[in-house]
């Protein structure tokens, strides 16, 4: 069996590290979105939660954890839900 080259081993290490970083970015964005949706449903400090979710989504998109259009779409949907909830209340 052929030995793996040094460059291949380095790429493997890089890919493992990047996968871990991107997973953390996606996870934090999802958590922020979930928190914002709960805050909107309860009607308590939704503006802060929506702002935090938008920030988390933008950071995830900047790092490449999610696509920038996906981040934009999710931000828009959360903002729309928040506007609808404030209008109703």
Radius of gyration: 18 Å
What coarse outline follows from CA principal-axis ratios? rod-shaped
Biggest sheet descriptor: none
Low-confidence stretches: none
Number of helices: 3
Find the count of extended strands (DSSP E, 2+ residues): 0
> Could you tell me the strand content as a percent range?
under 5%
Q: H/E element string?
A: HHH
CATH superfamily: Ribosomal protein S20
Mean pLDDT: 93
Residue share in helix: over 70%
What is the topological layout?
Layout: H1 6-42, H2 46-63, H3 68-88
Task: Please give a structural write-up.
By secondary structure, this protein is mainly α. The protein has 3 helices and no strands. Helix 1 runs antiparallel to helix 2 (46-63) and helix 2 (46-63) packs antiparallel against helix 3. The N and C termini lie far apart (69 Å).
Note the main attributes of this structure.
single chain, mainly alpha, Methane Monooxygenase Hydroxylase, Chain G, domain 1, 3 helices, about 85% helix, rod-shaped
TL;DR?
This protein is mostly helical. The protein contains three helices and no strands.
